[in-house]
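Treating backbone geometry as a discrete language has practical consequences that deserve illustration. The sequence in question and its structure tokens are set out directly beneath this paragraph.
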Amino acid sequence: MKSAIVILLALLMVLSLAACGGGKAAAEAAAKNAAEQYMADFKLASETMLSGAATAETWGNLTHDVWYDAINKEDHPSTEKYVLEHRSNGSTWRRDFNDALGQLFSDLDYMLAMKSLEDNQESVLGLMKKLTSPPDEYKTAYTAITDLYNSYTEFTDLVINPSGSLSSFTSSYNDAHTNLLKYYKAVQIYIDD
């Protein structure tokens, strides 16, 4: 009987040790899965910001060009429908640059693009919320993507709500664009292809 108890206790100890080892393996697998999911969300956030920034760049450049052409009485194929008023007896310049910008801002394509940018910002915000608790090995990556997010929001906000003078808009736009590219490159070092 005593030997049966000893065998039973030994068996329980072996099972306990096996359970602890299995629990450790399960915890390691869960941590690995969490890290993989984090990097998948990280990569998606980066790609989504790049997509939104590309849209913002297209429309930010057009905003600048319309503004510039309206002030300087120039017309190019991309700005003509905004800076010129077409009448039956020919085309005339819009009264001032605010009229030209108003034409741009009321253009259906422009309004759809701004809605798309706002939707993109919401998507990026949702992804950034998923990234707020990085695994230890991704803490510096989180800092990098936070810098990218801040420059992305500055850049897209400038395009969604242009303000100031042409000079101040252009300066802010160029600075934000430069920072966006710098932080995007910094984030790419954390992404495995």
Remarks:
- Strands lie at 84-87, 90-93.
